[in-house]
Amino acid sequence: MLYTHIYVEKEAADYPIAKRILERNTSAGVITINHYKDIFNRAHQDYRMQKRSPALILAVRHGNRIFAGAPVCQSFGQQNFFYASSVMNCPFDCEYCYLKGMYQTPYTVVFVNFEDYAEEVRDRLRSGNCYLCVSYDTDLLALNGLTGIADEWIKLAESSEGLQIEIRTKSAPQRLEPCGNVIYAFTLSPEIVAEKFEHMTPPLGARLAAVRRAQETGCRVRLCFDPMIKVDGWERIYPDFIDEVARNIDLDRVIDFSVGTFRISKDYLGRMRRNCPDSQIAWYPYVTKDNVCQYPQQTDAAMQNLIVDKLESYNCTGRIFKWN
Ligand code: SF4
Prior knowledge:
The chain has 324 residues and is an alpha/beta fold. It has helices spanning 16-23, 37-40, 47-52, 99-102, 114-125, 144-147, 149-158, 191-197, 204-216, 234-248, 266-275, 297-313; strands at 5-9, 29-33, 55-59, 66-68, 81-84, 87-88, 93-94, 108-111, 130-133, 163-169, 182-187, 198-199, 220-228, 254-261, 263-265, 287-289, 292-294, 320-322.
């Protein structure tokens, strides 16, 4: 993706990642700023308009860079579950994305001081193993050609004993680097859901082909069927979709599967509704339990069980993780 404007913190300009990004966007207007929050946290921003004309912000991250995993996220049974936010916001535009409820703007912030992240991870590893999700608040692989940050995380994982990273994506990379400490987690949705709600993402066929290529080169692959969306005909659409996935991917070689329905914290849903006033997903009448807006319990369980049962019919038992 090419950006029309790039805001650059004075402090960020000389970092190699900043220089790389600016070299790849020579036609962008560059605006020097003091602090990324001057742009990112401005009140009364027009979210939809900014998404149509996206800008990039290059910044230096101070303070904490690694955080404990949130309860609505799956740990896959791993201890010491953390996530890192080296980029905020995403080049894709999924209608259900919680980022629409998290931030006031869709402008993407890239933190260019990767070595500080690496140092914080090394510090953490001194007190034990670490399972670290690095692509929650963005799609790092979709941005990798521009930023190179996914490559940096993979290099760090390769050289760090006890570190296991998950890189989640909806992109369809041509080639991925196989590494024992890296899990490539592909999120897949039925074509009808992807077309309707996962704007700007590659089509399902391209993502399935990318998963196949990753498996063929020896990458560790996770499949995420999360979030499931309650579209008309979901009872038929989701099992047919798993059949399609099974026709295209060797499920025996998938390390595990994540299954979950749409859910979002109450606060985020409120902001998502303000940012996306015409969104069918934002305005669905969810129920709220423990401050999390979600489908009614029976519907939620029926939806997840549908995929679990189907996966179990393909001998995936014991490798399936549900969100609740
Ligand atoms: S790919 Fe993920 S992070 Fe990006 S918009 Fe979609 S849900 Fe959000």
